[in-house]
Amino acid sequence: MSRQIGDLLISLAFIAVSAAFLALSFGIGDRNASLFPRMLAWTVLVFSVWYLVGTLRPRTHRHAPAAEEGVDLVHFLAVLGLALVYIPAMNFAGYLAATAVFIVAGVYLLGYRRLAVLLPMSLLVTLLVFIVFKTLMYASLPSSALDNWLTELMYRTVLS
Amino acid sequence: MLLHNFAVGLAIALLPGNLLAALLGTAGGIVVGVLPGLSATMAVALLLPVTYATGPIAGLIMLSGIYAGAIYGGSVSAVLIGTPGTGASVVTVWDGYPMTKRGESRLALATVTWASFFGGMAGGLVLIFLAPPLAALALIFGAPDYTALVLFSMTLLVSMSGDEPVKGVIIGLFGCLIGTIGLDPVYGVPRFTFGFGELAGGISFISVLIGAFSMPQALLLAAAALKERAVTPVAPIIGNERLTLSNMRGQFLNALRSSAIGIWIGILPGIGPETSPFIAYEEAKRFSKHPERFGTGIIDGLVASEATNNATVGGSLIPLLTLGIPGSAAAAVYVGALTLHGLQPGPMLFAQRADIVYTLFIGFLICNCMLLGLGLGGVRLWTRVLALPKAIVAILIVVFSAVGSYAIRNSVFDLWVTVIAGGVAYVLAQHRFPLGALALGMILGPIFEENLLRSLSLSQNSWLTFVQHPISLVFLVLALGSLVWSIRKAQLRAHGRLRSGPGTTVGESMD
Q1: Of B123, B122, B93, nearest in space to B108 by CA
Q2: Which residue of B1, B75, B191, B503 lies most exposed, with the fewest beta carbons within 10 A?
Q3: Of B446, B481, B424, whose CA–CA distance to B171 is shortest?
Q4: How far is CA B14 from the centre of its chain?
Q5: ∠ CA A45-B505-A51 to the nearest 5 degrees?
Q6: Angle formed at CA B338 by CA B428 and CA B403, multiple of 5 degrees
């Protein structure tokens, strides 16, 4: 996708989003509460149209190439997809299993293939984050039976 | 009273837990800063959830360390591999890398460490002595004055996007628009909630920032890992020439001038440590007896660049703490930390929680001392960090972002906000949108709206109130001047009559 088409799509997206905010602002009952969002939506809309007009003009200079140019796109998209799957996976399988698998799969897909380093590193990081968040921050993480069992074990060890 | 506050601040800052927070924060910041492609803003955003557990004082000290450490860390990679670790170290490459190529990396690293320390301490001292009177002055500001002040700050967003100011305006105001989701700040009327209960309290500012500043960098690193599979070669730390006292004495004025520039740039909202090195470097060159040697590998250039970018850190905290207006994108993330701990930055913070403010001041100086120690003592460790495979770093950033975003409110919704913000920010950064403007917009928008509505309410909906208050009028005139100047500057740049400033490339625009 050329940079010009990208700019065009972004400007159209901003126009659509600001127009949607503008339309929705008329549904806000209170006049004062709708004042600022409406001002903003109008301004973003006007500047987005300006941006759109700018993208339609012929370019006189070339911008820096996009980061993914010259990249193995299949692997890049696979990692992107993996990152998107990671979140529902964490909710479904719990933090521990989803994170350990995500680290191994993600790093492997990005070209680092030394499994002797990768496997222990993945387990170590996953456990370290788990311990820090659970015991120091008292934060909750998406959990499965495995996570609950480990949490209980950790607290029992600390208490004893 | 002032001395009493300092004594209390010193006593609290020296508690072992707070010293540990300063040490961990500074070390963590250096690690992130050393890795090319990761910005200081990302360091603050990514490690922000960790401060949740430490309580406000240790958390804020830790964040100061992270911010200062990340700015310094960027210079290590600038010197050793010729690639700036953060946008703030671009200028450091110009003299640092030639020195490394000449076999003088030891001298270059010692110089950037001392210069960073000097700049950091100068910024910290100005913060300490300027912030309290400024906060006292800000107490007389009424709602119209604040509205005009924030408007002035918002016009500075225009100057953040180099030769494409329209993008800065769009993304900054879009940040403001996101900030309007949820209940309005004065009347409590729900807006744009789409039936989601999670949106009633607004979109989590921290989740957006974690996504916007971490995810794109993870994706850029992933792309880089796929492009160049080999690990970056790191030059060994060698050289017999040491930084002597006479060397340092000769650079005192240079360091002082550069620090002053950094502090001033830091105070101006919207312009961060990526800009100040360019100005300080040019000034150092102008005052130098041998300007032709700049760029060939001399310590004058390193001192200018590093003293100024670290001084910007302290400078950017001045408007944040006294007025509640962040001076840089990283400082905007800092607001997230304050609100996470139930604190509202601004003059009332000095009045109500002086203990926290003065402890933060002292903690900031301690962090800079830690930076000196870690920089001089741990340089071999930081070079090892540089050798970390990009594939591992990219995936770990995704994990930390996801876990951090979830842990703040235990919300899967926030996790999705982070991912969506990350995806959108990646696309926008690829098209040279300055993401720092998004952060500032999200912070400034709600402050502007609250004061605007209060002003109108107090004046029976008369817009003349903004020109009837002298302070407000001054800020309105400044806002108009800033807007005209930014547009003129962009026009000159577009016609090639002005050199394009920093912060306009994909990597730099992250800040």
Answers
A1: B93
A2: B1
A3: B424
A4: 25
A5: 20
A6: 60
Q: Token match 């309005």: residue?
A: B184
Token pair of A81, please? 């997809």
Of B50, B176, B407, the CB nearest to A40: B176
Selection from A106, A104, A95 nearest residue B402 by Cα: A95
- Collect all residues of chain A within an 8 Å Cβ-Cβ radius of residue B189: 28-30, 33
* Cα–Cα distance, B260 to B283 (Å, whole number): 11
Which chain A residue has its CA at the smallest distance from B456's CA?
A32
B194: distance to nearest CA of chain A, Å?
Answer: 10
Domain residue ranges of chain A, discontinuous segments joined by +: 3-56, 73-159
ipTM: 0.86
Q: What is the pLDDT of residues A113-153, one digit of tens each?
A: 889 989 999 999 999 888 888 777 677 788 887 878 887 77
Q: Where are the domains of chain B?
A: 2-510
Within the 171-190 window of chain B, which residues sit less than 8 Å (CB to CB) from chain A?
173-174, 176-177, 180, 184, 186-187, 189
A63 near B CB under 8 A: yes
As a whole number of angstroms, the distance between CA B469 and CA B138 comes to 14
Does B506 contact A66 at a Cβ distance shorter than 8 Å?
Answer: yes
Q: Which residues of A14-37 are buried (b: 16+ CB within 10 A; e: fewer)?
A: bbebbeebbebbeebeeebbbbbb
Answer whether 0.90 is exceeded by the pTM.
no
How would you classify residue B194: left for phi > 0, otherwise alpha for psi between -120 and 50, otherwise beta?
left
**B162 pLDDT above the threshold of 70:** no
By percentage, how much of chain B surpasses pLDDT 90? 24
pLDDT tens for each residue of A83-120 = 888 888 888 888 899 999 999 999 998 888 889 989 99
Structure confidence by residue, pLDDT tens digits, B42-84: 888 888 877 777 788 888 899 999 999 999 998 988 888 887 8
Q: Does the pLDDT at position B507 exceed 80?
A: no
Chain B contacts in chain A segment 117-136 (CB below 8 A): 121, 125, 129, 132-133, 136
Interface subset of A 73-92, CB within 8 angstroms of B: 75-76, 79-80, 83-84, 86-87, 90-91
Beta-carbon separation of A32 and B166 below 8 A:
no
Residue of A nearest to B505 (CA): A64
At B339, list the tokens: 């609100």
> Helix B252-267 to helix B276-287 angle, to the nearest 10 degrees?
150
Structure-block tokens of residue A40: 């903003």
Which pLDDT score, from 0 to 100, does residue B13 have? 92
User: Mean pLDDT across the stretch B460-489?
Assistant: 87
| pLDDT tens per residue across span B88-128 | 888 999 999 899 888 888 889 999 999 999 999 999 999 99
Residue A9's CB: how many other CB atoms inside 10 A?
14
Residues of chain A numbered 5-44 and touching chain B (CB < 8 Å):
6-7, 10, 14, 17-18, 21, 24-25, 28-30, 32-37, 40-41, 43-44
Q: Exposed e or buried b for every residue in B18-34, given b needs 16+ CB within 10 A?
A: bbebbbbbbbbbbbbbb
Tokens of B148: 């005009």
Q: Residue B190 carries which DSSP code?
A: E
Q: Worst-scoring range by mean pLDDT, B153-157, B189-193, B466-470?
A: B153-157
